[in-house]
Amino acid sequence: MSVRKKIWGEHAEKIARRLEAIDPDLARYIQDFAYEEVMARPGLDLKTRELLAVTALIALGNPDELKTHLRGALASGATEREVRETIIHSALYLGFPRALGAMKVFSELLERGRGGGA
To answer: What is the tens place of the pLDDT at every residue in 7-23?
Structure first.
C-alpha cells in the first residue's frame, strides 16, 4: 500500500481531487515526492513521522492539514493517548493556544469517528 493511501485512508480520493484542483503540478509533487519518497524513507517508522507532522502543523497553524495528519497518525498505529500526549507536549514549545486549537481539532475528529457530528 502506498504511504499516501495509508495516511489518507478513506479520504484519499477526496484529498487528491482537492489538491489537483488547486494545481496539478503541486499536487503531483505532494503526492509523489512528499508522500511516496520522503515519508517512505527508512530510518523512522510512519507513526513517528506522522506525530512529527502533527507537531509541525500545530506550529504552522494549518488545521486542515493537521486533521489529515491526525487521522494519518491513528492510521499509522498511534494510539489516541500518543496523539494527545504529542499535542500536550507541543504546548511547551509552541504555546498553549496552538495546542488547545489542535486538541479541539483532534476531539472533533474523534467525535465524528464515534458517530457524532457530520
So the answer is: 998 889 999 999 999 99
CB burial of residue 16 (10 Å; 0-12, 13-18, 19+):
middle
Residue showing cell 486549537:
101
Determine the Cα–Cα distance for residues 12 and 54; give it in Å rounded to an integer.
18
What would the pLDDT profile of 11-58 be if each residue is shown by its tens digit? Answer: 899 999 999 999 999 999 999 999 999 999 999 999 999 999 999 999
The owner of cell 500545530 is 58
Residue 105 CA to residue 88 CA, distance in Å, equals 13
Estimate to the nearest angstrom the gap between the alpha carbon of 76 and the chain centroid: 10
Cell 507541543, residue?
Answer: 90
